[in-house]
Design brief:
alpha/beta; 166 residues; two-stranded antiparallel ribbon
Length: 166
């Protein structure tokens, strides 16, 4: 966004550990923008949150290797967990699993608002579950890559175009 002179149009807030608090904070921040201008990009758990938020607001969302059932997947990660690329840690509490379940979108009502980017080499989430979950949405399935989409630069222009950035 900086290279395009659009750094003022980019916001990446640090979310709290509580899914309920993260969703409420994201909803409050998102409501400050006109829906037609707003586009979300969420990776992993952020993709799960972006799905919930986009369905509530009717805005576009790009989902990068999104979590599908984090309320099940994170059961094995309760307790103190490191925050990647940081010296910080968070406490993953059992009640957060219920909070995640409460944010589940049972059915995508507006598939035209979603763009899934899924890597077959994702070592955390099976790409086939992502493709199935977002079956009616625009999709880019990447052969190989990884959960972090370390080759994201190859797809950034397509993602930004979907978001309305020229």
């Amino acid at each position: 966004m900086r290279a395009r002179g659009l750094e003022g149009d980019y916001l990446c807030p640090q979310s709290p550990a509580s899914p309920r608090a993260a969703a409420e904070g994201a909803l409050a921040a998102a409501q400050l923008e006109p829906t037609e201008r707003l586009a979300l990009i969420g990776s992993s758990l952020g993709g799960y949150y972006a799905t919930w938020l986009a369905e509530r607001l009717g805005c576009r969302a790009v989902l990068l290797n999104p979590a599908i059932r984090p309320y099940e997947d994170l059961k094995a990660h309760l307790g103190r967990q490191p925050v990647f690329y940081s010296d910080a840690s968070i406490e993953m509490k059992p009640e957060y699993l219920d909070e995640l379940l409460a944010l589940e979108v049972p059915r995508i009502a507006h598939p035209e608002l979603f763009f899934l980017v899924a890597a077959t080499g994702d070592q955390v989430i099976d790409w086939r579950t992502m493709v199935e979950r977002y079956a009616d949405c625009r999709q880019r399935v990447i052969e190989g890559s990884d959960h972090e989409l370390s080759d994201f630069a190859h797809y950034a222009a397509e993602v930004l175009a979907f978001c309305g950035v020229r």
